[in-house]
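Quick one, T. Sequence first:
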Amino acid sequence: MIKKGILALTAVALISSSAFAADKIEKNVFVGVSDYSTNATNLKDNNIGISIGLGMTKVKDNNLYCGISTDFSYASVENKIGSNVNQKSISIEPRFGYHWNEKSNVYGLVGLRYSDFGSNVNGYGSGFGVGINYKIDKNISAALESKKYFMNTSGESIDSTTTLVKIAYNF
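Structure tokens:
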């Protein structure tokens, strides 16, 4: 199942990258702050995390938007006995949407994520989300994203929801 998901996401990424071939591609680096919640039995909700990442986007002549990004996330997640678990994740997310004016676009995304929850617990999964992006000026943009991931670990299935506010430098 996960192999099929990885193959499908790779195909989407390749199709996306061919869509970037002809015209100008906008690349960016970003940093973000997130609110991370999970249904894991031993972890508390509403933990603050940070993300850093790279992305590239393209707006086609018909205002359709396509892009792909990858990010590294870190959250110090409190467990129910009072100590913290350092969760580290990496994800790749193709995104498609609509560029409704010179400064704004809305998009949906799909993605794959690998997470290390510490104490020899790690997991992988897939997810989806939505976002809105606004260009503050030529090189700076801000975005708000909401993502839902379905993770499989060695002992438990974990659903997580992340709300992310990020600032990007575009070049």
